[in-house]
Amino acid sequence: MEISGAFLAVIIEAILSFFLIKKENSKKNLFLILYIVTVTLDLLWEYFIFNYDHKSTLLIDAYPSSFRLLKGPLLFLAGRCLLKYPINWKHYLHFLLFFVVFICNVIVLFIGSESQSFHGFYLWIFKIYPLYWCGYLIAALTVQIRHKNRDNAFQMLFIKFLFFVLASVITYTVCIFGKLADKELLRVIYTFSFFIQFALLIRLNQIDRQLSGTDHKNENIAINEIQETLTVQKKNIKYKTSVLSKDYIDNTNRQLIELLKNKKIYTKEDLNMEDISNMIHVSKNHLSQCISEGLQTTFYDLINKYRIEEFIVQINQNPDLQISELYYQCGFRSKATFYKYFKQETGINPNDYRKKILWEKELEQSI
């Protein structure tokens, strides 16, 4: 395929990617949307120059677009947003070089070859552009890897995206300057690499949408659990006037603990007090009172305590599995609830706990 066809194909996909991501209207995707817009403008400029010079790539090299200087800062700031770092006015200084070169771009277009020295300076900027581009990609990758969370599917794919872009830039630059392949063929291949970039960006948007839906669901679950806990506590106050014998309380709690230990009923994610009251044939009110007076806790605190203990057993046996996969198996429906109870029981967060296990296993193997 000739290069004009490659330009058109990638431009069309860029526009489609823009609308697919923009449709979600996610603030997290703002810089990724601007990245797509920037790539589109850069390709449109090259397509215009290519056709202006009777389908020759000579003018593309003589008048490179300044838009490409936006790509590095945009991906770097997208990474900051992903890690929920604040963005202030100082961060927008990253775009300063673009505006300077954009002005130079306009001047070069109007003066043409009348000022060889100025045009030479302009082209020199783009000779070091690959270093500038790689520098931003490496900086973005370094920050992401340093704060990598393997349970964050969006971040893991974003890291792969950055690696792919960096590998593409390095390969293209080495092949061009080393004259390892035909320049026009390399240009077409590099242009088509944006197909993969846009496909990854669309996938990132899909993951972001899924995570947003899950977070919203988890918030609702957490609110419901809090409301149910408050209801139980109110009932407990009421039951202080209701006297149950010590033997009754002990017997009820013994049956409950047996169910939890032997049957592991806590792994049922929608387990509620009515389910257990039916299993041991006591009323919900009496069950709540027995847990409160005999075990000095609430129903949900007790169930989640057993879930955490089960999670600890599972993570010690399978530290390489994803945390989210394990806590769902243990009965947790909400990430927020799981993290809250895990920190309450162990004093550290699950990620640090798993790192500790992996470190201990590596230490054992090295001895």
Automatic annotation (TrEMBL):
Domain HTH araC/xylS-type: 254-356
SUPFAM superfamilies: Homeodomain-like
Any one Pfam family match given in the protein's UniProt record, by short name: HTH_18
Keywords of this entry: DNA-binding, Membrane, Transcription, Transcription regulation, Transmembrane, Transmembrane helix
Signal peptide: none
TM stretches of this protein: 6-21, 30-50, 62-83, 95-112, 124-145, 157-179, 185-202
Gene Ontology MF, one: sequence-specific DNA binding
Source superkingdom: Bacteria
Protein name, entry field: DNA-binding domain-containing protein, AraC-type
Organism: Chryseobacterium populi
